[in-house]
Amino acid sequence: KKLASTLENEQRAHGDLKERAAEEGARWRRREDELKASIFEAKEEGRRIKEFAEQAEKEQIRLLRKEIDAEKAKVEEVEKKAECCSGRKGRSALLVIARIV
Prior knowledge:
The protein has about 100 residues and is mainly alpha-helical. The protein is about 95% helix and about 0% strand. The chain contains two helices and no strands.
């Protein structure tokens, strides 16, 4: 009788251990799924940041080109005015124009 009772207790303990192991396994699988989702979200965020940086760089280049074009226009204007001027008075006028621009 004592042996049967011990065997029953051991079987119960074994069943409890199996149940806890199954619960622990399920908990780890959920945690693994959460981590996979976090990794995916981080990759997506990285992709969005990269796209934003590329767009910002393109916008910066566009603005620099616009600024360069404006400076070129100023230089062309001074050159046109300089063509009209000749001699000493022309050089003085050119210096005045250059200071203005």
